[in-house]
């Protein structure tokens, strides 16, 4: 009789465990589940397993779930047959996967090399047909040379901007502000001759600002973006520092700090790794080609932006809803089901899929 009572008690304990609707982690007490939801910031914007629907903090976590040392056997088996190794989507059949892979696997853009011209301005920037396309983002990449006694200080020497259609909208070599001690030729391909009569930094700043702000006032751009462009790059803080420029943080899209693309310990991956892992081709096999890097970072951004998440919330409503979640009374939250807790939980980053929506909806 005592044994039966113990079994009944164990069964009751098992049935009363509280399971997270996003990551499936289980808790003995509801208050622990609520604390977990507040800390984890689960949302529909997190990478999700196409087999079991588990939400992961990053794509690296998702890869570990599917193919890591402790991968789930069922998910791993199905993904190995019908899953795309690049975008991590799961398809109905290997045939559907093959058709998808032809479009998902990209080829490396041609290298620009070290062209010996003063600079490139994209004439179509003033064309009405081009303006009507409403291309929202611009990607940037900079090349540095070394200064200082040991050549370890970065000095801007070259900059390139491309639009979403991978057109070069601006490219120039930059006049060194102080003496260059290391041109880093093996990495950059730059020489002293290429920087002779190069564009002064102030003029570079003016041209880039004109492209980015797109006729919008700085105040309006900082407030809600307005007509200003999104600036895409890898380690943008470093590039902007070398340009001696600033840009509204809400308009920056950095592949080095975008949480779904980071390591599980929130350390950045290299652009070379991200390009190979998510686009399927190699870059930086020799010198670092500025155009190739620029196009690759734009492709990464567009791939992340194109993700479809079933969420009707805008970025503003996400912030408001997160405040409600954080300030909600513990008892009220504990009375909610795991699915209801998941519905009011919001990410601690802005998902790039929101960029595909109108910036200022009516």
Automatic annotation (TrEMBL):
GO cellular component terms listed in the entry, alphabetical order: nucleus
UniProt keyword Nuclease, yes or no: yes
Predominant cellular place of this UniProt entry's protein: nucleus
Keywords associated with the record: Exonuclease, Hydrolase, Metal-binding, Nuclease, Nucleus, Zinc, Zinc-finger
A Pfam family per the record: RNase_T
GO molecular function: 3'-5' exonuclease activity; nucleic acid binding; zinc ion binding
SMART domains linked: EXOIII (SM00479), ZnF_C2H2 (SM00355)
CDD domains recorded: REX4_like
Any one GO BP annotation for this protein: rRNA processing
Ranges of residues in domain C2H2-type: 18-47
InterPro entries linked to this entry: REX4_DEDDh_dom, REXO1/3/4-like, Ribonucl_H, RNaseH-like_sf, RNaseH_sf, Znf_C2H2_type
Subcellular localization(s) per the UniProt record: Nucleus
Family, as annotated: Belongs to the REXO4 family.
Name of this chain's protein: RNA exonuclease 4
């Amino acid at each position: 009789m005592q044994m039966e009572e113990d079994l009944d008690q164990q069964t009751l304990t098992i049935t009363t465990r509280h399971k997270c609707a996003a990551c499936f982690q289980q808790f003995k007490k509801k208050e622990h589940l609520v604390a977990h939801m507040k800390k984890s910031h689960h949302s529909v914007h997190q990478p999700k397993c196409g087999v079991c629907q588990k939400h992961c903090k990053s794509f690296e976590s998702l890869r570990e779930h599917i193919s890591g040392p402790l991968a789930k056997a069922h998910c791993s088996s199905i993904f190995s047959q019908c899953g795309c190794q690049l975008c991590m989507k799961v398809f109905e059949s290997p045939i559907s996967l093959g058709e998808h892979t032809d479009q998902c696997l990209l080829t490396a853009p041609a290298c620009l090399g070290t062209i010996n011209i003063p600079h490139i301005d994209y004439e179509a920037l003033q064309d009405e047909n081009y303006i009507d396309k409403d291309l929202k983002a611009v990607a940037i990449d900079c090349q540095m040379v070394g200064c200082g006694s040991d050549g370890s200080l970065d000095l801007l020497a070259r900059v390139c901007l491309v639009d979403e259609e991978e057109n070069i909208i601006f490219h120039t070599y930059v006049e060194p502000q102080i003496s260059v001690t290391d041109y880093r030729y093996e990495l950059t391909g730059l020489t002293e001759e290429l920087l002779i009569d190069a564009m002064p930094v102030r003029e570079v700043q003016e041209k880039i600002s004109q492209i980015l702000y797109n006729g919008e006032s700085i105040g309006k751009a900082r407030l809600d973006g307005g007509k200003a462009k999104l600036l895409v790059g890898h380690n943008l803080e470093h590039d902007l520092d070398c340009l001696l420029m600033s840009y509204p943080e809400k308009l920056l899209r950095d592949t080095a700090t975008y949480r779904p693309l980071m390591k599980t310990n929130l350390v950045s991956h290299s652009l070379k790794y991200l390009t190979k892992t998510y686009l399927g081709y190699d870059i930086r096999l020799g010198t670092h080609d500025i155009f190739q890097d620029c196009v690759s970072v734009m492709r990464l951004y567009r791939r992340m932006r194109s993700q479809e998440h079933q969420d009707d919330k805008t970025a503003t409503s996400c912030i408001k809803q997160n405040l409600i979640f954080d300030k909600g009374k513990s008892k009220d939250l504990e009375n909610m089901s795991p699915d209801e807790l998941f519905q009011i939980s919001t990410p601690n980053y802005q998902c790039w899929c929101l960029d595909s929506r109108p910036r200022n909806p009516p």
